[in-house]
Amino acid sequence: MSLPFALNPVLRHLPVYQPGRPIAEVARELGLPERRIIKLASNENPLGPSPAALAALKLAARQMHLYPDGNAFYFKQKLAASLHVDPTNLIPGNGSNDIIEFLGHALMGPGDDVIVSEFCFAIYPIVARLLGANVITVPAKNHGHDLPAMARAITARTKAIFVANPNNPTGTLASPEEVRLLIEATPAQVVLVMDEAYIEFLESPLNLVPLVRSGEKPNLILMRTFSKIHGLAGLRLGYGIAHPEFIAALEKIRQPFNINSLAQAAGLAALDDLEHVRKTRENNFEGRKFLEDAFAQMRLRFVPSFANFVLVQVGPGQLIFEEMQKRGVITRPMGGYQLPEWIRLSVGTPQENRRAVRTLKQVLKVIGKK
Hints:
Blueprint: H1 23-30, E1 38-39, H2 51-60, H3 73-83, E2 90-93, H4 96-107, E3 113-117, H5 123-130, E4 134-138, H6 147-152, E5 158-164, H7 176-185, E6 191-195, H8 209-213, E7 220-225, E8 238-241, H9 244-251, H10 261-272, H11 274-297, E9 302-303, E10 309-313, H12 317-326, E11 329-330, E12 332-333, E13 342-346, H13 350-369
Parallel strand pairs: 1-11, 3-4, 3-5, 5-6, 6-7
Antiparallel strand pairs: 2-8, 7-8, 9-10, 10-13, 12-13
């Protein structure tokens, strides 16, 4: 039946974001035991959540009958201290996706332009189009952001520019020099959004926090998350770092209690769990090198990655994804990003990485015979 009421016409052509498939869903569909399935599709932390966060969760669970602190006071105080900013520079989000939606409501409307890169994170254009804005997509350069070209795309109608660094889904990293030049080239009336979800995996990251702390760039906002390095993806905890006046405006959009009690408690504890962060970085460095070396030996083209995943060209990407999934290895097909010949593999544990490579070899051999 057709609905008896009118929907926002924007929804007619708005795509639905397709996340990596959960293990339980694949197990049900294929009739496989969950223990035989590994998921390398969503850039999750293969070491699991911070042990300190798990311990904090157990204590916090006793008060689940109470509403959480709507201002996340203690979480913001501790996070601010770790970043050397004032709590007024921070806004918590139900994952960093929440921050993207805040920005949409605060900045975008019909007739506005939003600049993104080809192969950008899918949520940027989805939110922009939902708010009626025009999405200006700048062609990628070597699968990464062409920051000089993005700067040249700025017009009087531009409201925001989104840059993920490192980028998802390609894993590319813009040079510090090009980032600085983009910051300087962005007019004060245009907001530059730097998505730093994977910044903790960099050996020598460019630190843009001082530009926010000093108030020098009130049109700059940084987005970060606890999903990756801290292993708290299931709790949905992210945050934005920006000028206090900008944060105050975004607070008018933020839903009450968007950060639940368990997420706040886990985030507080995870900030102190430096050992878990160290182990995660070490596992990621070794695992990423293993995957890239394996792809090179297999003569498969891949994009050198600075994140916790590797994008690799395998031919019929959707078919390879399906065949690997039948064998209990969930990857991410890239057709939705206009990369139909590619799949993305998250870095897993050493055992998971070895199994993923073995499975990919088996599937490529079988596909080659068809």
